[in-house]
Design brief:
heterodimer, A: 181 residues, 5-stranded mixed beta sheet, B: 445 residues, Rossmann fold, Helicase, Ruva Protein, domain 3, 4 domains, 5-stranded parallel beta sheet, 18 helices
């Protein structure tokens, strides 16, 4: 087990069924206990009209304040996120931190003029959550092409990798957390 | 192990610094941040950063001014300028001032990854390049030039001052004093060190062979010339050519050599195309070239062309204080090459070495030590292991005449009773030598 508790929080726009499936997938990948919360939240405060996107850095601070404690919190958003230096982000987490954010906004095929593919969308979402969770557990980007910790800057990059940590990353996780993986 | 690249982020906005910090940390880089140019400059002064990512618009000193200051002290620093307000003018100015790249905020995540990956590749290549250069320099260092004596120190300081120029050098000194080592020291301390040092032993080659060796030849130039061949002058392009035993070349070759030295152009034997080569010439001889000029056996114009700088290496007998250092150096050299434990040298043996004349100079000393290590007991070099002959085996107080008699006899033996050569070695005329042979009743064995 990586961590006793992972809290997956939906900040609107996700079906309950999808959230349950995500939690189940995370349980299988991480062998951790995963809880799901769905909350109502006014995102307008974090909207930047000049960029027409939502500020990822500010949202991270807000999530941190909303969910104090020791658990690892992954916040899911269905809006387009940015940080000041980057045009967009799929997700963000502090290395060894407690909070991670993931945006599903750019993960659907329909954003790229393609036919919707719910299975692919689900896969991408699991991989992004696993990636940010990896950072929260102390993993840096991995050069292995199939490892979920490989950096992805385009959605196609996400499709190239698997949803699991590679052997090296698992060993590092084991050292970082002190838990057997 | 892969090198860890370090990055310094300079931006007055907290959010930018934090975002970049997180991004690079997740990518496995060593990252530090500075909120203004002054702090960045003091960090750069104290630490080494491979890549500096700096904002252009900052309160106080702006990024462009900081870039100029960094480049003034660290010309090879990789500085990437960032701006939220891109204009062609600032971009051009930044690149003119030596920025590695110029990017506008916000970046596309993929562009940022590529930018840093490319900069990192350059860092790794530059580091490897520097390490390789250092290794090459170390391989060809002047470690073999041993000596603390004033005479040797003078030679070393001459080497140091002449190395940086491209002037021709004549190295004179007795056989075995290390003329080739001095030539190597000059070359490998000069800006030409990354190009070849081409050595030619003029004395070992006949006139026609030397011509072909120096200038190269075209296919069919003479019987047996089956392929085109580059000459030594061509091979020494951008480097140095070392002409050992220059005094032995014929008058015809002297003319040819003079022409090449003046024009730095030549034709291969059998060729009709002028070839240019930028080389530096270092010559060596154990003969008195000035006297040869006076005798008409060496061209005066060539002598002056070659003799821009003259370095004279003192014979070993004139720098006796270097003998212990040389002995120690050769012991280490040969024990290591023969995979043996380091041997010591008996005090009496060292004292005798210091008394010895060493007509063969350092080469003779080197051979003696090598031989002593081979035949010795593996622990200590003893007097009996050294082939010093009668010269230093004498004991007790002897008169000046007795010493002179022994010395004259030894020289006569050495030159197989060739009166002219012996007289020259003794620096006396032949008549005086005959008188001394008569006086001391010396006989040809």
């Amino acid at each position: 087990m990586l961590q006793p508790h992972i809290l997956l929080v939906s900040f609107g726009g996700f079906e309950k069924k999808l959230l349950q499936r995500l939690a189940e997938a995370l349980r299988i990948e991480t062998k951790a206990e995963v809880q799901v919360r769905d909350i109502y939240f006014d995102l307008n405060l974090f909207y930047d009209p000049t960029r027409r996107q939502y500020n990822g850095n500010e949202l991270m601070k807000e999530v941190d304040a909303l969910f104090p404690g020791n658990q690892k919190v992954i916040a899911l958003f269905n809006v387009d996120l940015f940080i000041p230096i980057l045009t967009y982000i799929f997700g963000q987490a502090m290395l060894n931190g407690r909070i991670g954010i993931v945006s599903a906004y750019r993960l659907g095929n329909e954003r790229y003029g393609l036919e919707p593919d719910p299975a692919l969308y689900f896969d991408r979402l699991v991989k992004e959550i696993m990636h940010e969770l990896g950072h929260m557990l102390g993993l840096i980007h991995c050069h292995s092409p199939l490892c979920v910790m490989r950096s992805s800057t385009y959605v196609e990059d996400i499709d190239q990798k698997h949803s699991a940590y590679c052997k090296n990353c698992l060993e590092m996780l084991s050292e970082n957390t002190g838990h057997k993986t | 192990m892969a090198m860890k690249v370090s990055i310094l982020i300079v931006d007055d906005e907290d959010s930018v610094r934090d975002s970049l910090y997180n991004w690079f940390i997740e990518d496995g880089y060593d990252v530090e941040c500075a909120e203004n140019a002054s702090k960045a400059l003091s960090l750069i002064e104290a630490n080494h950063y491979h890549i500096i990512l700096a904002d252009i618009k900052m309160p106080g000193m702006d990024g462009l001014e900081m870039l100029r200051r960094i480049k003034a002290v660290k010309a090879d620093a990789i500085v990437i300028m960032m701006t939220a307000f891109a204009t062609v003018n600032t971009a051009v100015q930044a690149l003119k001032d030596g920025a590695y790249d110029y990017v506008t905020k916000p970046f596309d995540p993929d562009d940022l990854s590529h930018l840093i990956r490319n900069a990192s590749k350059q860092v790794v290549l530059s580091t490897e390049n520097a390490q390789l250069k250092e290794r090459v320099t170390k391989l060809e260092n002047v470690d073999d030039l041993i000596g603390n004596s004033p005479a040797m120190q003078k030679v070393l300081s001459e080497v140091e001052s002449v190395a940086q120029s491209s002037s021709s050098v004549i190295i004179t000194g007795e056989s075995g004093t290390g003329k080739e080592l001095i030539a190597r020291a000059i070359h490998f301390n000069s800006p030409r060190k990354f190009f070849p040092l081409v050595s030619v032993h003029c004395g070992a080659l006949s006139e026609s062979l030397l011509e072909s060796e120096l200038f190269g030849h075209e296919k069919g130039a003479f019987t047996g010339a089956m392929y085109n061949r580059k000459g030594r002058f061509e091979m020494a392009d951008n480097g140095t050519i070392f002409l050992d035993e220059i005094a032995t070349i014929s008058m015809k070759m002297q003319v040819e050599l003079l022409r090449v030295l003046e024009s730095k152009c030549f034709m291969r034997v059998g060729g009709n195309k002028e070839i240019e080569s930028d080389f530096r010439v270092i010559c060596a001889t154990n003969r008195d070239l000035k006297k040869m000029v006076e005798n008409g056996t060496f061209r005066e114009d060539l002598y002056y062309r070659l003799n821009v700088v003259n370095i004279t290496i003192p014979p070993l007998r004139e720098r006796v204080e270097d003998i212990p250092l040389l002995v120690e150096y050769f012991i280490r050299k040969y024990c290591e090459s023969m995979s043996r434990d380091l041997v010591k040298i008996e005090k009496a043996a060292l004292a005798r070495l210091e008394e010895f004349e060493f007509p063969g100079n350092v080469r003779e000393l080197e051979n003696m030590i090598e031989r002593a290590i081979v035949i010795g007991n593996g622990k200590e070099i003893k007097l009996k292991d050294l082939p010093l002959g009668k010269q230093v085996a004498a004991t007790g107080i002897e008169s000046l005449d007795e010493n002179e008699k022994k010395h004259v006899a030894q020289i006569l033996d050495k030159y197989n009773w060739n009166i002219s050569k012996s007289a020259k070695a003794l620096k006396i005329d032949r008549v005086t030598l005959y008188n001394k042979i008569k006086k001391y009743k010396l006989r040809h064995p």
